[in-house]
Write a structure and sequence with these properties.
By secondary structure, this protein is α+β, with helices and mostly antiparallel strands. The chain contains 15 helices and 17 strands. The strands form 6 sheets. It has a 5-stranded antiparallel sheet. A 4-stranded antiparallel sheet has the order 1-8-4-5, covered by helices on one side. Helix 2 crosses helix 6. The longest helix has 27 residues. The N terminus is likely disordered.
Length: 453
């Protein structure tokens, strides 16, 4: 029955852009979860049958386009994220061990995967040239990739993966294939494009193939090239011996979506590896189960705009133990004061330059996991706790050298506040140890160049 319902949608997809086709698939996946699994082979076959003509014609045209001469662009080196922790003194300058995620070639962040690429596809190439890449693309287009694509979409949807998560997934899948690194890059671009994402390939020094991804926000940690004033990033954390690469002028027809680094819904990664993080507050022990698979995923993230970290949803499983200890009162003001005191007494503040040797922003769960944080990490975590536990609204306050928070608490006298969207928010600074709501770091009182989020 599910397949019969999907058939009109798939037929219409032949006349629509591939982006809309993929969105329709995801919509059906999300609304027919268990039935979809039972009828997966029928669903896969319907994709192959109803969409093959449109797919094949576009891939043939694009393969010919790839064989044409590519244009040369200068490679621009990475930049440094904005450093906000300069106003905080260094406390206990013990260098923390740099964290590196554990590689698991069989599982994707705790999720077992069994997604295979089509058989009888190229495994290597004797040269890296426009013509060779076009021929390999054509071979991939002529293969039966529908099963692989459908499985990638299904798993991506069930795990709530954003673009970066989908990219990590296809990297995980292609690493399992017995193919050369260059074929792997072509496969990754193929799967990104056929998901509807903008993505290109670049040739460095006529012998190395790299992926090029644009993003919807600034990325600091990757090399990039500018194509029509749009940065296309090389998602590899390494240096390049040359400063130019060749690439082509447009994506395949149906790759219209700009890759999104923002996380809009909580990820659903493996549930078999947790760390117990313990805090003592008001003589009570708080034990928080932090999912290490989530920490591993966050460790792959490129350094990007701080709003990406601030807007990401927090794992709600962490909040119940905190609510029991921090929010015993019915007063939003009292609970906010308790959360502020919790931030002051239970966390160690340390500049990233000392701990990591570079600026590194944290997602909220990372601040609970790692032994040190700095001001922007503290403010992001505090904002989450207030918003989820108290019923009050908290925002971030950005100074040129510092990040604090502010809460929509009632004014009681001479509190420092900011106005955001015609509403007053009382300054609450989780990095200003011992400060009460409304108390601001003296140096910040003279700052006029600030904005709120």
């Amino acid at each position: 029955m599910i397949v019969l319902l999907l058939m009109p949608m798939i037929s219409r997809a032949q006349e629509e852009e591939f982006e809309q086709f993929v969105d329709n698939i995801l919509h059906e996946i999300q609304n027919t979860d268990s039935t979809f699994h039972r009828n997966f082979h029928l669903f896969r076959d319907s994709i192959a049958k109803e969409f093959s003509n449109f797919r094949d014609s576009v891939n043939r045209e694009f393969a010919k386009f790839l064989e044409q001469s590519w244009e040369t662009f200068p490679i621009i080196p990475p930049t440094t994220p904005v450093c906000y922790n300069q106003v905080l003194p260094s406390r206990n300058p013990t260098i923390s061990k740099i964290y590196s995620p554990e590689a698991d070639e069989k599982n994707f962040f705790g999720i077992e995967t069994n997604i295979c690429l089509p058989e009888n596809i190229p495994t290597g190439t004797t040269e890296i040239s426009e013509k060779a890449i076009g021929q390999i693309w054509l071979a991939l287009g002529n293969s039966d990739f529908s099963t692989c694509l459908a499985e990638c979409l299904l798993l991506s949807s069930h795990l709530n993966l954003n673009t970066w998560g989908y990219y990590q997934l296809i990297c995980h899948i292609t690493r399992q294939q017995p193919v050369s690194p260059d074929i792997r890059i072509i496969m990754q671009c193929f799967l990104m494009n056929h998901r509807g994402y903008k993505c290109r390939m670049g040739i460095i020094n006529d012998r190395e193939l790299v992926l090029l991804l644009p993003f919807n926000t600034k990325v600091y940690s990757f090399y990039h090239v500018l194509i029509n004033d749009i940065p296309y990033y090389i998602p590899e954390k390494k240096e390049f011996a040359v400063n130019k690469l060749k690439t082509y002028s447009r994506e395949i027809k149906f790759a219209t979506q700009t890759p999104d680094l923002f996380l809009h819904t909580p990820l659903k990664l493996g549930q078999n590896k947790f760390s117990r993080k313990e805090f003592i507050f008001n003589k009570e022990k708080i034990i928080l189960p932090v999912n290490e698979h989530l920490i591993d995923f966050y460790a792959t993230y490129p350094a990007c705009d701080l709003c990406v970290y601030a807007s990401a949803p927090i794992d709600t499983a962490l909040l119940a133990p905190l609510r029991e200890v921090l929010c015993k009162d019915s007063s939003g003001y009292t609970n906010t004061c308790e959360i502020l005191r919790f931030m002051h007494t239970c966390f160690k503040h340390q500049p990233d330059s000392i701990v990591w040797g570079r600026e590194r922003y944290f997602f909220a769960e990372e601040s609970l996991y790692y032994p040190y944080m700095d001001c922007e990490d503290s403010a992001i975590l505090f904002r989450h706790l207030v918003n989820h536990l108290t019923g009050q609204e908290a925002i971030l306050v950005f100074y040129p050298e510092h990040v604090a928070a502010a809460v929509d608490l009632p004014c009681r006298g001479m509190e420092k506040y900011v106005t955001h969207h015609d509403k007053k928010y009382i300054i609450c600074d989780p990095s200003y140890i011992g400060a009460q709501p409304g108390e601001q770091i003296p140096r910040m009182e003279e700052t006029r160049e600030l904005f709120c989020y």
